Amino acid sequence: MPASLKKTVVIVCSAVLLCSCASRYQENYSNNVELSTTVTTPEQPPESPPRGPADANDADAAKGPLIIGIQEAILLAMENNQSLIVERMNPEIQQTFEQEELAVFDPLFSPEVSSRRSVGDRLSRAGFSTESQIVDSINGSISLAKLFPTGTVLDLQAGTSYTDSSLYSDTFTANRLGLTVTQALLRGIDIRANMARVNQARLDTLISQYELRGFTEIVLEQVEAKFWDYALAQRQIEIYTDSLNLAEKQMTEAEERIKIGDLAETELAAAQAEVALGRENLINARSALAKERLDLLRLLNPSGGIDWNRDVTLQYDTTLPDVRLDDVEQHVRLALRMRPDLNQARLQIKRGDLEVVRTKNGLLPRLDTFISFGKSGYANTFDRALNNMDEDSYDVTWGLAFEGSPMNRSARARYARAVAGKQQLSKAIINLSQLVQVDVRSAYIEVTRAQEQISATAATRNFQEEKLRAETEKFRVGKSTSLLVGQAQRDFVASQIAEIQAVANYLKALVSLYRLEGSLLQRRGLAAPGAEPVTLNERE
What is the pLDDT of residue 475? Predict the structure, then answer.
């Protein structure tokens, strides 16, 4: 067999490695990992971050390339990706609003103390002249009030007053203990309305958790897609390198044949053009690989900071995943249950329902009933006044308080807006459900297409390989030209690229389908908030 043909066979055999973009691609890459502020594995204590083979020794790893597999890449990104770290903080921030709304029902402690001196004249006690007086007084009070979700307000008061007048030889002290109970009869009596803001804040926290889940799935999809894009870029460099070597060898053979008069000099230009084209393709492929490396490093964000000049070496199996998709309707049903954005929309409807209840309560006028009971003691000193509180002195007050506007336009506008907003959310979730179905069905079609393309591109590559072999043999016996051989070689390289591209597209299409149906984290063995589907009650 001629040497050039042997080289062609070697290139063809190397094309078999086009499946190097694939891996075992197991449905579960790891055991469950909690996505909180840190990512942990069950084999390690919660305070220890997962460590893959690439970062087992950060000091040593930083000296060489980042050697990483798909599983380690996922764990590394889940732990260190900066955008994900930022997003993880949102539920914690949102939870502070819960506490802020709950503070409305916290007891309110209100102490107050004041001192007053009055200097002036007054009508004398004899009634026909004036006399001067100096009055010193000190007043103190303590109040402990609490609002309950039932619309009840309890207010416990304690007060004391001390008066010293220059007109009298004795001082006067009065002490009082009192309890006031106020109960809403119209506006504010509905417990659900009183708790609406608290429950809305809790729903907002849940919404932020589903947002985190959706964002996490997006990051996970980006990591896997970039992993295979980088593997594809590496294989393209190998293919273009082998193609350039073959073109250079063919050009050398053409030059030798021209020297001995076995080939016309016009054939050299075509061989030189193929060499130039091969170098151009190799330059572009290396540039593309460098860009993919930067994107992958940013997504992974290795511990200790990113060394942008650090090389990345991927570890993966060349076996394509044996994945058998369920019927598309099952994937659609799963998406309608698990998609984070759909669950967020359902929570928004629940939130809108609470807003309707709260604003409807605002349509009512304020009508409160209250009763106040107090026990007092009087004497010339504080301790004597305190001891005298067990006597018959007391006070009782009962009454009603009403407040309302005849037109109440502000409350009516808020209620109308809440009702319209809830109706809008209900319509929006129907539209979102249709979009989800389109997403999943389109992704399902893409997975099927990409899977079929693998076999089709493999067949094309085989035919192009045979075509190149035949054209090379014809050229050697003088029945073809360098131009035709170069064209066949370009077609063969293109078929190689198309084949490995089909494999990468298939792997990325699978990840995209899993994300669009909301099952990507579960399929990768990762746990995050928002795993439970949200259901709406019939009346909602």
Answer: 83
Question: What is the CATH number assigned to the segment(s) 3-98+197-352+415-523?
Answer: 1.20.1600.10
User: Contact 287/304 with Cβ under 8 angstroms?
Assistant: no
Q: Averaged over 293-314, what is the pLDDT?
A: 90
List the structure tokens of 463.
Answer: 């035919």
pLDDT at residue 4, as a whole number: 41
Pairing of strands 172-184, 366-379: antiparallel
Whole-number Å distance between alpha carbons of 441 and 264: 58
Strand pairing class (312-315; 66-69):
parallel
Percent of the chain with pLDDT over 70: 87
- Alpha-carbon 408 to chain mean position: 41
Task: Tokens 């990345």: give the residue.
Answer: 312
Please state, in angstroms and rounded to a whole number, the distance separating the CA atoms of residues 218 and 519.
Answer: 12
Q: Where are the beta strands (DSSP E) in 167-278?
A: 172-184
**CA–CA dist 119, 218 (Å, integer):** 77
Long-range contact pairs involving 355-359 (C-beta distance under 8 Å, separation at least 24):
355/196, 355/200, 355/418, 355/421, 355/422, 356/415, 356/418, 356/419, 356/422, 357/190, 357/192, 357/193, 357/196, 358/193, 358/196, 358/197, 358/418, 359/411, 359/414, 359/415, 359/417, 359/418
pLDDT band for position 25 (cuts 50, 70, 90): very low
- pLDDT at 346 exceeding the cut of 80: yes
* CA atoms of 273 and 268, how far apart (whole Å): 9
**Three-state secondary structure call for residue 30:** coil
**For 275-290, what is the mean pLDDT?**
94
Q: What six digits make up the tokens of 153?
A: 């307000």
**Full-model pTM:** 0.79
Contact (Cβ atoms closer than 8 angstroms) between residue 348 and residue 151 = no
260 CB-near residues (< 8 Å, 6+ apart): none
pLDDT for 113-136, tens place per residue?
999 999 887 777 666 777 788 989
- Average pLDDT value for residue range 6-32: 35
User: Where does the pLDDT of residue 48 fall: very low under 50, low under 70, confident under 90, or very high at 90 and above?
Assistant: very low
Two structure tokens written together for 294? 């930067």
Residue-wise burial string across 184-223, b where 16 or more C-beta atoms lie within 10 A, e elsewhere = bbbbbbbeebbbbbbbbbbbbbbbbbbbbbbbbbbbbbbb
What angle do helix axes 328-338 and 409-476 make, rounded to 10 degrees? 140
